[in-house]
Write a structure and sequence with these properties.
Strand content: 5-15%
Radius of gyration: 23 Å
Number of strands: 12
Helix content: 40-55%
Order of helices and strands: EHEHEEHEHEEHEHHHHHHEHEEHE
Structural class: alpha/beta
Shape: globular
Length: 367
C-alpha cells in the first residue's frame, strides 16, 4: 500500500509517540491530527511532527490512508461515527487501546470491518500527554495487531511493516484471544497487587507495624499497585468478561492451596510451589528462585543502535559495578525505560544511577 497521509485522532502519550516516530522514520509522510487539547496540536506543529492540525474530524481526514484512534475507547467509538462517512475506500483504521473486544464490536456494528486492524502497542509511561511523547518509546516493544476477519491481507501487511519501521515488534492475534491473554498476564496481576495492598492495610494494627516493616517480597509483588487507579477502573469495565473468568480460576486455585495448607498436604504443597517455580524460571529474562528477594533494578532509555547495550555494560564494568542481569524490556505498558539492569546489591544500583546520569543517560528508578 502506498502511504501518503496518516491521521491521528488524539495526540497524547501513545499517539504522540507513534506520530513522532513516524516523522523521524518517514519524513515524507503527511501527518495530520485532531485533539481536543489545542496545546498538544500547537506543540506538535511547532516541533515539526505534524504537517496539519485540525479542529474537526472532517476535511483532511477524508484523504488519510491510515487513521490512528488514540482516545479512550468510548470517545474512539463516538469519533468513528463522525469518520465513517468520509473514509477513503482503502483507508486503514487502527487504535492503540489495551482492550480490544469493545472497539471490535463497535466496528462490526458500524460495518467498518474491512477497514479495521486493531492495535495495542505494549509500551507506556507513568506520565501522560503529548508533552511526554517520545519518538523512541515503542522501540523493541511488542505491538499487537488484531485484524478483523474481513480486512484484506494488504492492510495487515501495511500495519506490520509500519510497526517494524519504528522498530516495534508486531504480533498478530485475534481480539478475543488478546483480551484473554492480557486479562491473565496483566490485568489479573494488577488486581492481585491492589487486593494484597488493601488486605495488609485493613489488617494492620494501630501502630501500622505492617506498613513500617513492608519491604522485600511485599514491595516487589505489589510494585504495580502504584499504577493509575483510573486506568484500572476503565480496564476492569472494558475487559470484565475475561477478568471474571481468570478471577474465578484464581479464586479456585487459592481455595485449593488453602485446603492443602489446612490439611498439611506436604506433597501437594511441594508440587504446587515447584511447578510454579519451574514455569516462572522458564520465562525469558527471569531469574526468580523460590522466595522473592529484593530487586535492585534500574531502567534506562536507550536508542536502538549497534553497541548501545555493550557501551552501558562497559561503563559499569570499568567502574567495578557487577551486573546480575541485563536485557531489553519488550512489554513496557506500565513502566518507563527500554533497558532493564538488575544488580546484586542496592549500593551497586545507586552507584550505577549516578554514573549513567553523568553520561547523560535517562535513568528510571523503581520504588
Amino acid at each position: 500500500m502506498n502511504i501518503t497521509t496518516i491521521g491521528f485522532v488524539g495526540l497524547g502519550l501513545i499517539g504522540g509517540s507513534i506520530a513522532k516516530a513516524l516523522r523521524r522514520v518517514h519524513p515524507e509522510y503527511n501527518i495530520i491530527a485532531f485533539d481536543a487539547d489545542k496545546d498538544s496540536l500547537l506543540a506538535a506543529m511547532s516541533d515539526g511532527t505534524l504537517n496539519q492540525a485540525h479542529d474537526t474530524l472532517s476535511g483532511g481526514f477524508s484523504q488519510c490512508d491510515i487513521i490512528f484512534l488514540c482516545a479512550p475507547v468510548n470517545i474512539n467509538i463516538e469519533n468513528l461515527k463522525i469518520l465513517a462517512p468520509i473514509l477513503k475506500e482503502n483507508c486503514i483504521l487502527t487504535d492503540v487501546g489495551s482492550v480490544k473486544t469493545q472497539i471490535h464490536t463497535a466496528i462490526r456494528q458500524m460495518g467498518l470491518e474491512r477497514h479495521f486492524v486493531g492495535g495495542h502497542p505494549m509500551a507506556g509511561s507513568e506520565k501522560s500527554g503529548y508533552v511526554n511523547a517520545n519518538d523512541r518509546l515503542l522501540e523493541n516493544a511488542y505491538y499487537i495487531l488484531t485484524p478483523t476477519p474481513e480486512v484484506c491481507e494488504d492492510a495487515v501487511h501495511t500495519m506490520t511493516a509500519l510497526a517494524r519501521s519504528i522498530t516495534a515488534l508486531p504480533v498478530v492475534l485475534d481480539e478475543k484471544h488478546h483480551d484473554y491473554i492480557t486479562a491473565a498476564i496483566s490485568h489479573l496481576p494488577h488486581i492481585i497487587a491492589y487486593t494484597l495492598v488493601n488486605l495488609v492495610k485493613d489488617s494492620d494494627d494501630d501502630a501500622e507495624r505492617m506498613r513500617m516493616l513492608a519491604a522485600g517480597g511485599f514491595k516487589d509483588i505489589t510494585r504495580i499497585a502504584s499504577s493509575s487507579p483510573v486506568m484500572w477502573q476503565q480496564i476492569c469495565s472494558e475487559n470484565s468478561e475475561n477478568l471474571l473468568e481468570v478471577l474465578d480460576a484464581y479464586i479456585k486455585s487459592l481455595e485449593n492451596i488453602a485446603d492443602a495448607v489446612k490439611n498439611n498436604e506436604k506433597d501437594s504443597l511441594l508440587q504446587f510451589f515447584a511447578q510454579a517455580k519451574d514455569y516462572r524460571d522458564s520465562i525469558p529474562k527471569s531469574k526468580a528462585k523460590g522466595t522473592i528477594r529484593p530487586l535492585y533494578e534500574i531502567y534506562v532509555d536507550l536508542i536502538d543502535e549497534s553497541g548501545a547495550i555493550a557501551t552501558i555494560a562497559t561503563i559499569l564494568a570499568t567502574n567495578s559495578i557487577s551486573i546480575k542481569n541485563i536485557g531489553i524490556v519488550h512489554n513496557r505498558e506500565f513502566q518507563e525505560g527500554v533497558l532493564r539492569i538488575e544488580f546484586y546489591e542496592g549500593d551497586a544500583a545507586e552507584k550505577a544511577v549516578t554514573l549513567l546520569r553523568r553520561f547523560h543517560y535517562v535513568v528510571h528508578e523503581r520504588s
